[in-house]
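fyi for ur records
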Amino acid sequence: MSEVVVIALGQLGRVFAGGLLRSGHTVVPVNRGDDMAALAQAHRAPELVLVAVAENDLHTVLAALPDVWKPRAALIQNELLPRDWLAHGLIEPTVISVWFEKKKGIDAKPLIASPAAGPGAALLCRALTSIDLLCREVALGDALLFELVRKNVYILTTNIAGLKTGGTVSQLWAQHETFARQVANEVMDIQDALTGVAHDRDKLIAGMLEAFEGDPAHGCTGRSAPARLARALAHADEFGLAVPTLQSLAN
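which gave:
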């Protein structure tokens, strides 16, 4: 029976662990404070090493990831882009853009199918499908990059715009479309700068709206929204981008 290491068993980590167990894998958990080097010695050849930590912990964990596990890494964080994994010497990790919501005490709820790419994409899709969560495989490269940027545009636009509007994603678009587009355009400016690619903005907006339709009652904002705005502004400063709408929200 193949082993899959899961680093961090928070809400998302537990969903994936459940799917992996259901689809016939042995799950090796890594909790905060565990000695990853010692675990890597004991489990040198897992089929996959799923990094399920929060965005803020990603770089710390990747910096400490044992070399023997690096070729098997799989990433699931929000606000994820190639520069995040390339900074740690990961060339073509498995990556999945998670499009289901999991909150404490509530079953995971899919918005749309989660796209996965890389060596472990099929394994992750089998695991999610086994617990009735939609998943689809996409190619590495441009197809994966579009999916990551699409998710970033969705989560940043709704979270940041929601700081002003509150409400649901369907209300955001029905009642505040002009404002939402202003936020989205500044978010896309930042994504273009972070990736070095001028993305098709109409296609990104259409992708965001598909997710809106997947869960119209999804709340726009949450506890992480102020931190997402702060990170977006820091990226804008890094590239010298004018983001007056985002700046006005911070003020």
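The chain has two domains: 3-137, 150-250. thats all i got for now
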